């Protein structure tokens, strides 16, 4: 059976780095499967929406608790659209 684990490698007031890794257990020993998925999110309006869309609970709540109620990073107009 393959299980997915999620790690928040770095969580600050302005950003978070999220890593997902699949694992398989063989004879009681866990082994990573494939390459980890990584994404960095910034505490901007767009970044907060990405966290809402892509990060499952309880990680989402933890991120937003540290980030507070308002974005701390302006959105990058070059990345919109």
Topology:
Elements: E1 2-11, E2 15-26, E3 29-42, H1 45-54, H2 59-67
Antiparallel strand pairs: 1-2, 2-3
Describe this structure in words.
This protein is α+β, with helices and mostly antiparallel strands and 81 residues long. It is 23% helix and 44% strand. The chain is built from 2 helices and 3 strands. The chain is elongated. The mean pLDDT is 93.
Would you summarize the structure shown here?
By secondary structure, the chain is an alpha+beta fold. It has helices spanning 45-54, 59-67; strands at 2-11, 15-26, 29-42.
Q: Helix segment count?
A: 2
Please tally the β strands and state the result: 3
Q: What are the segments in which pLDDT stays under 50 over at least 5 consecutive residues? A: none
Strand-and-helix sequence, N→C?
EEEHH
Mean pLDDT across every amino acid position:
93
Strand content: 35-45%
Shape: elongated
Using brief descriptors, characterize the structure shown.
alpha+beta, 81 residues, three-stranded antiparallel sheet, 23% helix, 2 helices
